[in-house]
Amino acid sequence: MTKVVDNSKKDYHCKLAANMNNLLDFLKNNSSWIKDISTIIFTGTGTLIAILSYRRAKSTIFQPKRTEVAKIQAQILTDFLTTFTTDGNSLDRSIDYLNIFMYNVDIILRDYNLSDIEKISEKYAEYEQNIAGWFQFLENEDYKFILVEGSIKDYDRLIFESNHRERQKYYERDAKKGIFDVHRIFFTKKYSQFHEKLRDLSNNPFLPNEIQKVANQIGENMTVNLHYKLKSILSKLIEETYKALNDTETSDYEVLSETFKYQTLWRIFEKERNQHDEDYELLKTKIREHLRIDKE
Fold it and tell me: Model pTM?
C-alpha cells in the first residue's frame, strides 16, 4: 500500500521556520534602534505621567490659596458696594454731585465779584466743613490740573484774598473781552472718600482686570462730569450773570434768581452729565461673573 505524504504541512512548517529566522535576523540587525524607540516610548510615557501628576499636585497645593484670594476679593467688593450703594445710597450720591454743584456755583460767582459769601454765615461754615480741596486747572485745560487739598479758608488765604485787587482787575478785563474762564473746581470730603475707595478698587492687585476696568471707567466719567460738563455750565453762568448785572442788550434777568442758579442749572447738569447707572450695573455683572455666583 502506497503512503501519501501531506506536502502542504511540510511547506507550512518550512515557511514558518524561515520567517522566524528572518525575524531573528531582523531583530539582531536592528536591535540598537529598536532599543532607542523603546526608550523613547517609555521616557515619553513617564514624562506624561509626571506632568499629569504635577498638575494634580499643583491644583491640590494652590487650591487653598485660590480660595483665600476669592474670599479677599468678595470682602473688598462687598465693602465697596455696601458703603456706597445701600441704605438709599448710590454712586451718584456717593460722588456728591449736588453739593459740588451748589458750592461751585457760589464760589465762582464770588471769584468774579458777582456775589458775596459772608464768612460768618451758615453757608460759609458749611463750606468749611465739607470742602476737601479743588482741581486747579493749568492754562484753562480741562484735563491738565493740580489736585490741591484744603478747605475754603485755605483757598481764601492762598488765592482769593492774596492780591485780591489785582485778581479782580484780571477777571474784569477778561469779562469785558467776553472771556469767562473757570480756573478750578472744588470737591467735597464725601467725593474725596469715594474717589479714594474707587482708586483702591482699580489698583488692588487681588482684583481681576475686568473689574478694575469698570472702576477706571467710573473714574473717567467722574472726570468728564466735573472737568468738562460742570465747568462749561459754570462758565455760561458767570457770562450770563455778568451780562444781567451790566444791563447789556442780551441780558436775561432770570439768571440772577436763586431758582435759576440752583434748580434750572442743576437740571441741565443732571441731563448733560454722564450717568453712573450703567457703570453700576456693569460693575455688578462683572462681579457676579468673576465670582461665578450664577454658576452651579
Answer: 0.75
